[in-house]
Amino acid sequence: MDAEAWNARYAGSEPVWSLEPNVFVERELHHVTPGTAVDLAAGEGRNAIWLAKRGWRVTAVDFAQAGLDKGAALAGDLPITWVCADATTWTSPVPVGLVLVAYLQLEPTQRAAAIAHAWHSLALGGALLWIAHDSTNLTEGTGGPTDPAVLMTAEDVLADLDALGASYGVVHAGRVARRVPDGPGHQHEEDAPARTAWDCLVRVVRQG
């Protein structure tokens, strides 16, 4: 799906995605001391807004201006810079302490390009947090893309980093289960019927 299609999808007044942060973003970063961050492929900015509320100075990047406009309206005066750019070609002009990429589903060549630009945006000691629909979700999980070419595993992400010659320490890398409420109206009910979606999660720290 290209930028024009995403702009059309974001054109309505209602949010396309939940206004809450992704569960793994919250889980991995709630205890991390705030600094500078990039939310790459930020969409409507739900994760960028959550980070900014916790004290991060965030640059939210997406190729769909309509999504960024929605995010900016929701964010108010939070310390977020909104940048309309392609995640496969954009690099932060200033190294940052965190690059977050959540559900940027790309075929392998484009994915490798996005990972390269994300990596080159990181300061020494900074963290890359990459979350995506796992390849196994197609047959074992629920929701997400149905094109296997844009699904991936943690091993794929690490292989892309290795191809760059990246020096990193692994904090987490593997498949994780995400609870998906079964039907409308159950988004915040812990005892609601649910299905399991499978994601890949990679969190690494730049060492060189």
Structure report:
- The chain is an alpha/beta fold.
- The chain has a domain at 22-43 and 90-185 and 192-206: Rossmann fold (3-Layer(aba) Sandwich), CATH 3.40.50.150.
- Helices cover 29% and strands 30% of the residues.
- It contains seven helices and seven strands.
- It has helices spanning 3-9, 23-29, 46-53, 65-75, 108-120, 137-140, 154-164; strands at residues 36-40, 57-62, 80-84, 96-102, 122-133, 168-181, 194-206.
- Strands 3-2-1-4-5-7-6 form a seven-stranded mixed beta sheet, with helices on both faces.
- Strand 2, helix 4 (65-75) and strand 3 form a beta-alpha-beta unit.
- It is globular.
- Residues 184-192 have low confidence and may be disordered.
Task: Give the N-to-C terminal Cα separation.
Answer: 34 Å
Q: Please, what is the average pLDDT?
A: 90
Secondary structural class: alpha/beta
**Strand order, largest beta sheet:** 3-2-1-4-5-7-6
CATH superfamily of the domain at 22-43 and 90-185 and 192-206: Vaccinia Virus protein VP39
The number of distinct β-strands equals: 7
CATH architecture of the domain at 22-43 and 90-185 and 192-206: 3-Layer(aba) Sandwich
Helical content (DSSP H or I, runs of 4+): 25-40%
- Could you state the oligomeric state of the chains shown? single chain
3D shape:
globular
**In CATH's first tier, which class of the domain at 22-43 and 90-185 and 192-206 applies?**
Alpha Beta
Strand content: 25-35%
Order of helices and strands: HHEHEHEEHEHHEE
**Low-confidence segments:** 184-192
